Amino acid sequence: MGLHALCCGAPLLALAAASLSGAAVSVFLPASFVAFHDLIHVHELWVLLLSAALLVVGAGLELRARLRRRVSGFPLLFLLSGLCFFANVALILGHRLSAG
Asked: Does residue 9 form part of some domain?
């Protein structure tokens, strides 16, 4: 369960980190947040690739759990993870397209 929560929760954490670092641009925050914002932008593709890998691992764990035992209900954490991943992709694409 811990690994599954990590795989499905990582895209949510990445989206929250990107959102918080974006807030540094429009609101006065300590210099460490601006440095974090710059760090995220420098490594955003690696963060996105790691997020995608964790999403695939989470999907595999979800499928494995459903095949081994009769799991009922909809996997809301996995859905949230997927939505956050695609939101990250859209944000990065939008930022790169608007930056030129």
From this structure: no
Give the pTM: 0.61
pLDDT in tens, 24-73: 455 555 666 677 777 777 888 888 888 889 889 888 888 888 888 877 77
Please indicate, yes or no, if residue 6 is contained in any of the structural domains.
Answer: no
State the DSSP string of 45-65: HHHHHHHHHHHHHHHHHHHHH
d(CA 16, CA 47): 13
| Residue 77 forms part of a structural domain | yes
Residues of the domain holding 82: 15-22+29-99
- Tokens at residue 38, please? 């710059």
Residue 2 domain-assigned (yes or no): no
Number of domains, the chain: 1
Residue 88, C-beta contacts closer than 8 angstroms, at least 6 positions apart: 11, 14, 15, 18, 47, 48, 51
